[in-house]
Design brief:
229 residues; 7 helices; 7-stranded parallel beta sheet; alpha/beta
Length: 229
Amino acid sequence: MAALQKNQKIRVIVTGATGMVGEGVLHECLLSPLVESVLIVNRKSAGITHPKLKEIIHQDFFDLLPINDQLAGYNACFFCLGVSSVGMKEDEYFKKTYTLTMHFAETVSSVNKDMVFDYVSGAGTDSTEKGGTMWARVKGKTENDLAKLPFKKVYAYRPGVMKATEGAKNQPKLYKYLGWLYPIIAAIAPGSACTLKEVGLSMINLMYVDYPTHIITPNDIKQLAKEKV
């Protein structure tokens, strides 16, 4: 299916805006002249006001019926909502990762024709769904089943190590203390690291590019972020 033309603007839903990845992606969307409007859906307010931003506060992502109509009218969804698997049993992680993501995706695909869905997954995700690492299997199943939904296109982002956006409020403690390592990692293993600025720009530019692969790695992210659209 054809990518957007230059005269077409992006109307995007962003999830996870109160987390580090979603905050970085939202920041780039609000800055970009290519993005006409942004809807963020959160359990708590992101505390951001902007002329092209609308926010819905909704507690139960497993029951979207009360906000179903408000999710219509968009041509992109940048799904940045996610949880760590640390300390979780598989059934709990499956519910908060696979079940939640699929329910949200099924809902927005049902009310938006020709939507592009970008899912922030993870480096090391297991596309076979059969490996020994629990979170990688769950992420792999999520990627695979998202691709079966009636979206225009689905992209699975596997960004690896990410550098937070300058001035970001929502950085996990680990990133705050270990952020100084990013330049070293980026120099030693450039194919495993990217900035959140690059992630956001790549998602925007990907709307205008017919990209040959649906799995987006750090190298893809950096390439797409430089695209002139």
